[in-house]
Every structure is written in structure tokens, then in C-alpha cells.
Design brief:
212 residues, 7 helices, 10 strands
């Protein structure tokens, strides 16, 4: 399958591209630092550009059969538009020149209206996580509302803490409902799930969660 990947230079994106190539997919990636990908993955097509530039986004999705975004915000920032504007640019480009299938990785806290947290985790969310990353969760929520109005067959994939630990080769997932005791998952296992649901129509236009 011909895939367009956004966020490919990040930790999860790198693992996604590696897995996609191993599975025989053809990959096109948009990157602000194209040399990061072209050096590591000689077999992929890399388009230099920014997700906020609609013209370069259209060039990346043109001819693809599915699009996957692992875009994320910088931990050094106190604001972001990467979800509400960046991902929506991808959806707009797809409506113009690309396929219908769109998979977007996000934080569970940003897309799940009823997170299943034990009391101590809820307290930590309120006093620590929300003050630090609330700006990103609000942008994810805005993206969720805007994607619902798009014509794409989108799936929002909520993940808990992403780790660099070894792949387990197994995970739990849910569709349109909270995933109980979802605390962490490796980037490799999350990437595997993103690829596994490309043709899963049960996930179309829904939010899902995946965790160990």
C-alpha cells in the first residue's frame, strides 16, 4: 500500500516507517529535516516541507492510499497548533487530491471524553499534567471537533505514555470507549497498531485507544 506519513522524524514516526517498509508498504514522508529520513531509510520518498504549508502537504498525500500522522508538539513549547491546524491541513489536502483514509495519533487525554483513571492518577492529571500540557490537550480537542466535519475516513488513536522500551508484540485496544488501566505502551507497539487498523472499517470516523 502507498502510505503518506507525517511526523516521521519523531520517535514513533521512525518506528512506523521502519515497520511499514518491512511490511512492504511504499512510504512518502513530509519532513522539515528530510535528511533525517533519507539517510536512515533510502527506500522512501521524502518531501521537504512543513505541515502548515498546504501546497507541500498536498504533494505528500497525492497518490497515496492512506495517510498516518504521528505529529506531536515540542516539549519546549507552551502552545501548539499542530493538531487543530496541522492535521486539519492534512485532511483538507486529502479532500482535494488524496485518499479518504486518515489515522491520527494523539494523547488519550486529548481525545477521550471519559478517561478511565484511578483516583490518584486523576489527581496527578489535575495538579501536574493539565497545567503542563493542557494547551496541547485543548488543541487536540479542537482537532477532534474539526475532523468530525471532514470528509475523510479518520481514526483518532489515543495513547497513554509512550515508551522507548522493547516491543511486546501485543496490546489492548478499544473503540469509542475508555480503555481500562491504560498507562503505557511502547512506540513500536503503537506503530504496529496504527498499521494494523488501516483497513479496519470498524474504526472509521471513531476514536480508539491502545495500550499494554
Amino acid at each position: 500500500m502507498k502510505l503518506a506519513v507525517f511526523g516521521g522524524t519523531g520517535g514513533t514516526g521512525l518506528r512506523l516507517i521502519e515497520k511499514a517498509l518491512a511490511q512492504g508498504h511504499e512510504v512518502t514522508a513530509l519532513a522539515r529535516q528530510p535528511e533525517v529520513l533519507s539517510t536512515r531509510f533510502p527506500g522512501i520518498r521524502v518531501i521537504p516541507g512543513d505541515v502548515f504549508n498546504l501546497e507541500t502537504v498536498e504533494a505528500a498525500v497525492r497518490g497515496s492510499e492512506a495517510v498516518i500522522s504521528t505529529l506531536g508538539f515540542s516539549g519546549r513549547s507552551r502552545e501548539t497548533r499542530i493538531y487543530s491546524e496541522g492535521v486539519l491541513n492534512i485532511a483538507k489536502a486529502m479532500e482535494e487530491v488524496g485518499p479518504r483514509r486518515l489515522i491520527v495519533l494523539a494523547a488519550s487525554q486529548g481525545i477521550d471524553p471519559h478517561p478511565d483513571f484511578p483516583w490518584y492518577a486523576s489527581i496527578m492529571m489535575k495538579i501536574l499534567i493539565q497545567p503542563m500540557f493542557g494547551f496541547a490537550y485543548r488543541d487536540m480537542a479542537k482537532m477532534t471537533d474539526l475532523l468530525a466535519q471532514s470528509e475523510t475516513d479518520w481514526t483518532l488513536v489515543g495513547v497513554p505514555l509512550l515508551t522507548n522500551s522493547a516491543e511486546k508484540g501485543r496490546y489492548r485496544s478499544s473503540i469509542s470507549r475508555p480503555l481500562h488501566h491504560a498507562f503505557r505502551i511502547s512506540r513500536s507497539d503503537a506503530a504496529e497498531y496504527l498499521l494494523a487498523i488501516i483497513n479496519e472499517s470498524a474504526t472509521f470516523r471513531k476514536w480508539t485507544e491502545v495500550a499494554w
